[in-house]
Design brief:
Helix content is 43%, strand content 19%. By secondary structure, it is of the alpha+beta class. Bound molecules: 3,4-dihydroxyphenylalanine.
Length: 368
């Protein structure tokens, strides 16, 4: 539309409204302003908050009376005076009520209590719940405590010896690479531990067998965050060293653990694997199911979810920690806690466990 047409249209509309609607509009406007006045008169703000709302409604820069001043030109000329007086009356009423209420409230020392029913019951305080990772960690700890394991915790900032060397990790092992491990700024001999296996070393260095411990805690890895992996997560390490400890003992302990955590009918399998600190080594899978797309994604199409690594403690590790490997043997295992929580509660994205979205967390209110 050209600006010329716009101008033309404007001329058409305004005169029509002025000629035909003035009377009707006047009556309507008078009626509306009178309504506002009676509305103002009926108000009695009970506290400072209500008074502020009142002020904004009738006296603030966007008050409800203001638009009616602008309507002055729609009122028939003989009625304009009366209309103006009515508007002023509305404004004055609002000012009066505001002033008198303000005075009353400030002179009333109990003003904060005004309008409150002190006998009313309090608002319920929403109860939080334990995070699913804590819930599962606690379950794991208690399963192992019941069969004689004690809980040991240790530091999260480690040295090379505890995180790698004493765990039989060769100098050129890729895990030592800076792309996997978070080293401290300016100190490449210290790092955020990448596994709770470090605690095995601390324990064996300071105690004599029999040793039967688990160690829960946080670990850190320079990983790309995805539905299955995170850069910071939790593990529980287990270590059992004594005379005559065998692979069969390990299998039974792990099977017992899986049944306790997942139920009698759980299915697990051990696959041969490799870890520098165990020989032989295995990985444990638990059956997840393969019914929908999520199951395929979570289990890479196998239906099985890997939940831990384990094996017989390598004699080199025992020796490096000062334990006679001729006399003693042991098994160790390490599992990701998030993994167990995901399997147990069918959570299909590990990131949910770190976002702290109340709607997600609330679902674990009744988890034991
Ligand atoms: N530390 C291993 C990891 O983080 C897990 C692990 C595997 C721990 C075998 C063990 C073990 O104690 O024996 O992937």
């Amino acid at each position: 539309m050209s600006s010329f047409e716009l101008q033309a249209n404007r001329h058409k509309i305004i005169p029509l409204r002025l000629i035909f609607n003035t009377e009707l509009m006047s009556a309507e406007l008078f009626e509306k302003v009178r309504n506002i006045i009676s509305q103002i008169e009926s108000e009695s703000p009970a506290d400072a908050e209500a008074l502020e709302a009142f002020r904004l409604r009738y006296l603030g820069s966007k008050n409800t009376i203001k638009p009616f001043f602008a309507e002055m030109r729609s009122v028939a000329s003989e009625d304009r005076k009366a209309y103006g007086q009515l508007l002023n009356e509305a404004k004055k009423k609002a000012e009066e009520i505001f002033k008198s209420t303000q005075e009353a409230l400030s002179s009333d020392t109990d003003s904060a209590l005004k309008g409150l029913d002190l006998t009313a019951p309090g608002y319920p305080i929403p109860l939080g719940s334990r995070h699913p990772v804590s819930v599962v960690m606690q379950q794991i700890i208690s399963i192992f405590q019941r069969i004689g394991f004690t809980v040991v915790e240790n530091r999260e900032i480690e040295d090379e010896w505890h995180n790698f060397t004493a765990l039989n990790t060769p100098e050129d092992h890729p895990a030592r690479d800076m792309t996997d491990t978070y080293y401290l700024k300016g100190d490449l001999t210290r790092m955020l531990r990448s596994q709770t296996s470090t605690v095995q070393v601390h324990v064996m260095e300071s105690r004599k067998p029999p040793i039967r411990i688990i160690s829960p805690g946080r670990v850190y890895r320079n990983e790309t965050i995805s539905a299955r992996a995170h850069a910071q997560f939790h593990q529980v390490e287990g270590l059992y060293v004594d005379e005559g400890v065998s692979f069969a003992d390990m299998k039974q302990v792990i099977f017992h653990f899986a049944k306790e955590l997942y139920g009698e009918d759980v299915k697990i399998r051990l696959r041969p694997s490799y870890f520098p600190f165990t020989e032989p080594s295995a990985e444990v899978d638990v059956y997840w199911g393969l019914n929908n797309e999520d199951d395929y994604r979570m289990t890479k199409g196998t239906g099985w979810l890997e939940i831990m690594g384990c094996g017989m403690v390598d004699p080199n590790v025992l020796e490096m920690c000062g334990i006679d490997s001729e006399k003693y043997s042991g098994f160790a295992f390490g599992m990701g806690i998030e993994r167990q929580a995901m399997r147990k509660y069918k959570i299909n994205d590990i990131r949910l466990l770190f976002e702290n979205d109340i709607r997600f967390l609330e679902q674990f209110k009744n988890a034991l």
